[in-house]
From TrEMBL:
Localisation per UniProt entry: Cell membrane
Classification via InterPro entries: MFS (IPR011701), MFS_dom (IPR020846), MFS_Efflux_Transporters (IPR050189), MFS_trans_sf (IPR036259)
Principal location: membrane
Highest taxon above the source species: Bacteria
Keywords: Cell membrane, Membrane, Transmembrane, Transmembrane helix, Transport
Entry protein name: Arabinose ABC transporter permease
Any Gene Ontology CC annotation: plasma membrane
Pfam families: MFS_1
GO molecular function annotations of the record: transmembrane transporter activity
Topology of the protein relative to the lipid bilayer: Multi-pass membrane protein
Sequence ranges assigned to domain Major facilitator superfamily (MFS) profile in this UniProt record: 7-382
Transmembrane segments: 7-32, 44-66, 73-91, 103-124, 136-158, 164-183, 204-226, 238-259, 271-289, 295-316, 328-352, 358-376
Amino acid sequence: MKNSKSVLIFILAVGVFGILNTEMGYIGLLPALSDHFDVSVSKVSLMVSLFALAIAIAAPTLPLVFSGVNRKTVMLFVLAIFIIGNVISIFTTNFTVALVARVIPAFFHPVYVSMALSVAATSVSAKEAPKAVAKVFIGVSAGMVLGVPIVNFLANVFTLEISLTFFALVNIFAFIMTIVFIPSMPVQEKLSYGSQLKILTKGITWLSILAVTFLNGAVFGIYSYLAEYLDVVTKMSPYMISIMLFVYGLANIIGNILAGRLLTIAPVRTVIIYPIALMILYFAFFFVSDLAIPTAIFIVIWGVFGGIGGNVNQYWMMSSAPNSPDFANGLFLTSCNLGTTMGTGIAGIIIAQIGTKYILFVGMFALVLGFICILLRNMLYKSTNA
């Protein structure tokens, strides 16, 4: 039984990796895609921005729509849509067709990811759920850190089509593994849409949404400008910046593993300490960010915090509505996207008005707001886990 659950969680992680890989991998292919379709880089960047917009639109709604459908059916359906989109992208020479084939699967991205997190959490005991979720989050981190360099390498050494084929192969592998190893998973207790939407009338839900939005913005609002920060403030070479970005991603994976253990042992304490510790880290880094070695150390520690943060956010959102896991995870994805958008936008204004070095204060301010929301939730809705 334990082995079958491990296989299930592994397949979910691979599926999430394939979907995140498809999402993030295009970032490193924009110049090659621009040449391939003979369009401007700004136009081809629609493949990234519209993908993100589709996720933001679908995250609060589609996971709810699919919440009563057999889990295996949903997994195969979403993976099939991604595979079809991947294959069309390989062979088409028409940019509009490629864009449509890219955006349609994006709407189903939150369906698979939210369901994967829910299934992982419910496949084990409530106490062990954070560890199971953390393993799925490894797929998220791997998709973010490995996707870009792998497809970049394939596009540079071979062809763009070969790099696009990599997306398809990962999703095909997850599809086959799902067919062969995962049994039918009908939903045991189908919740009405009304009963799930009811969580939006509760204060604990909105305090959790705000906390997740601020905490995620505190990380990704800064991370979005990490390459520029290392260039402008730390004066690193492009080669070293690439290494630092990769190191951040690897540290992120370590953070996921660590988060699973921390949230299993003392979940509420972990959530409370997280923003305080990250605030201290940002404050300390501000004074040494022009030095290469302290910056490299910061990147490693921050990467670990980034991995922990994703798990902390998911736990906090999920624990606010444990009886509506799919909808709660959809709200988690929406909150994360909103936080990233707001954090990136405000940090961009700070860069233009004051300077790149000062974006750390955007992160610190967001952490203060997130911490306040966490404390308010704890005071108003007493948590039972230490």
